[in-house]
Fold each of these.
Amino acid sequence: MRIAYTAALVLCSSLAWSQTGADLADGQATFRGNCAFCHGLTGGGGRGPILNSARLAHGSTDADIKNVISAGVPGTSMPAFDFDKDELARLVAYLRTLSGSAAKAAPVAGDPVRGRKVYERSGCAGCHRIGTEGSVYGPELTRIGAGRSPEYIRESIVNPSADIPQEYGGVTVITRDGKRITGVRINEDTFTVQLRNASQNFQMFQKDEVQQVIPETKSLMPAYSSLDKDDMQNLLAYLDTLHGDLNAGAAVKKAEGIR
C-alpha cells in the first residue's frame, strides 16, 4: 500500500511539474510575440526597459506587473495589452523566471560629473527632460540608467536612426510657398497632420492646403558620433546614474495588431 501511495505522489508531482513547464512555455511564447521586440528576448532591454533585474521600475509584485501590462504606462511607449486572465498569469510567471537573472553590472566607467557637463553643453536639455528640467520634444531620460543598457544608450547617441520610437517619428510639411516645417508627428489622418516643433508649439495642417507631407526616415536627433572618446564615456557614466521617477502625463495607447 505504501509503495502504491508513494508512486501516486511521484506521478502527481510529475504531472504538476509538466503543467508548470507548459505554462512557462506558453508565457514565453506570449512574451516573445508581444514583448521581446522592445524588451529583448531575455529581458535585457532595448527600446523598452530592462526586465531581468530583480527590481522593476513600476513595482515587482505580481499585481504591479499585471497592472503595467494591462493598463500600460502613461507618458511612455508601453501600451495596454488585453490578455485574458490565464494568459496574463502565464506571462507574469515567465517574467518571474527572468527577474534577477542578469548578472550585476559594474558601474559604467567614466566621470558622471563631467558627463553632466557634456550633456549640458551639447544642448541635450533642448529636447530631453530629466526630472522637471528640459524639454519633452525627445524621449524622457529621467530613468534612462535604470531602464536601458549602456550599449543601447551609446547606440542611441551615435546612431539615433537605428531605432526610432514610433511616438518620436518626424514629419516635414512643405507649405504652398515652399516653407519646410519639421517636427514630431503627433497625429495624422487622411485630411490633416499635426506636429510639435522643437519650440514645443503644436501645428496642424490641412493636407489639401500644403504642397507635400513627408515622413522622415531618419531620427530628428542628430548623431553625436564625433564626440571625444572621454566625453562619450563620461556622458554614458552620467546617464547611467539616472534612476529617478518618471513624470508621466500622456494617455496610454492601446496595443493593436501585435498578438
Note: The beta strands are 129-130, 133-134, 170-175, 180-188, 192-196, 202-206, 210-215.
Amino acid sequence: MDVRPILLVVGLLLATLGCAMILPAIVDLVAGNDDWQVFALAGVISVLFGVGFYGGARGTARDLSTRQAFVMTVSAWVALGVFGALPYLWSGVVPSFTDALFESISGLTTTGATVITGLEVAPPGILLWRGIQQWLGGLGIIVMAVAVLPMLQIGGMQLFKIEAFETAEKIMPRATQLSGSLTLVFVAVTVACVIAYLLAGMELDDAVIHAMTTVATGGFSTKDASIGHFRSTPIELVAVAFMILGSIPFLLYVQAVRGKTLALWRDSQVRVFIALLAILVLIAWQIEPIEEGATRASGFMAALFNVTSVMTGTGYATANYSAWGPAANVFFFMIMFIGGCAGSTSCGIKIFRFQVLFETIRQHVRRIFYPNGIFVMRFNGRVLPDNVSAAVMSFFFLYAMVFAAVAIALNLVGLDVITAMSAAGSAISNVGPGLGPEIGPAETYQGLSDAAKWILIFAMLIGRLELLTVLVLFVPRFWRA
C-alpha cells in the first residue's frame, strides 16, 4: 500500500490542528496565564509534524483506493487525538497521558465525557481548546459522512453517495469543494448560536465555547454542572434548538442556501427525527418524578432538554436524570443509542438505519401474508437496494456485539454492571454521561481506572467511525488484498 496519499491528508490535518492552537494561546496570553507557552509549543510541534508528513508526500498522486481511505480515516483521527492531548498533559490539568488522551478523543469524537473537574477555575485556554476540539471534530464528522463513508459503504451509508463521487479517484477534489460549502454553513450556524446565547444572557466566553460544543453536539461545558449551572430557561431553549439543528444533515442546509428551501422538510430522516423526539420528550415528562415545589412546566423543560441532549448525543445536563428511578434509567439508556440524522454532527445508530430496519421488517411481514406478492422497499421515495438493507442489518448486529464486548471488558476491569453497560453505550454512541453514581450526568469519568479509560477511548473511536471503519483494520485479509 502506498502510504504517501495518507500522509498527505494526515499532514494537512495536523498542520490545521496546530494552527488552531494559536487561539487558546492568545486567550491565555491575554489572561496572563502561563499556559500560553504550552499551546505555543504544542502548536509548533503539531505544525512541524504536519508539514513534515505533507512535504514527504507532496507531489504524489492524491487518488485514494478503498483500502487507503480506511487507513487514512482511522490514522487521521488517532493522530489528531494524540497531538490534541498535548495541551492537557503539559498544562497539568490532568495527571497522566491516559487522562489527556481520553479528554482529547472525547472532544474530537464529540462524545463529551470528561475527566476534568473544577472547570470554573480551569485556565481559559484549556476551556477554549475543549470547545475547538469538539467543533473541529463535528466538522470533520460531517465531511467524513458526506465524502468517505458512502464510498466505503459502511452500514448502509452508500444510500447517501453523491453522484459526483462515483469512484474513489473523484473523492478528493470533489470533497474539497463540498467541504468548503459545508464549512461556511457550519460557521454560520455556530455564529448564530453564539448570538442566541448572548441574547439569552450568557457571557461572551461561555457563549462562544458553548456554541461550538452545541452545534457539534459534543457537550463539553465551561461549568461542572453543565448547562444546569445557568438555571436559565432561555439558555436551555437555545441549546435545545441548536442541538436539533446540529442533528440534521448539513448538506440539506447547503441545498437550502442554494434555493432548495423545502429540502429540509422533504427529507424523511428529518421528519422521523422530529416526530420521534417529540414522542420521547412526552414519555420522559410522564415518567419524571415531580419534585417538591416544581411545576409541570419546569418538568416539561427538564424532559425536553435532557431527552434532546441524550438522543442527539450532545451530553449536556440540567438534571441528574439517573436519580429519577429505574424506569427513567432504562428509558435514557435506550434512547442514547438512537442518534440523529446521517450527515449531521450527531452520533449513535442514526435515524435512517431505523427507517431501513422498519422497511425490511415490513417487507418480510407482507411476504408472510402474500408469498407471491412483490413488495419494494423505499427510502425517501427511492427504491431501497437489497445490499443497503443487508448492510444495515449487519451494522445492527455488529453494534450489539461491540456494545456487549465493551460492557463485558469494563465489567472485568472492575466496573459494576450498570456502570459498565451505560459507559459502553455512552462511549459507542458518543453521548458522554452514563448512568449511576459514578459516571452519571452529575459526575465525571475521572474516578475510573486507566484500564477502563483505554477501553472507552477505543470504544469512542470505533463508535464515531461507524465500527467497520476501524474493525476492518484488524482483519488479516484486509492487508493482503
Note: The CA atoms of residues 8 and 39 lie 24 Å apart.
Amino acid sequence: MFKIGDVVQMKSGGPAMSVVSTTDEKAECLWFAEGSETFQRDTFPMACLEAVEFEEEDDEDDGEDED
C-alpha cells in the first residue's frame, strides 16, 4: 500500500511521518516530535495510516504585488 519515502499520517490525526520500511501489513515511520525536539520512530498497521496530501504553492499567481 505505502512505499519507502511516502508521507503518511494516522487516520485519527497526528504528525506527518515518513515511511522508512514496510511489510505486507505494517509500516515503520519516522517523524520529528516538536515538543521534545527529537525524531521518533514506530511501527503502525497499514490500516491505520493514510497518505498526506500536500497543496502545491504557486507564488507567482497569488494576486499580490510585492513592491
Note: The chain has one domain: 7-54.
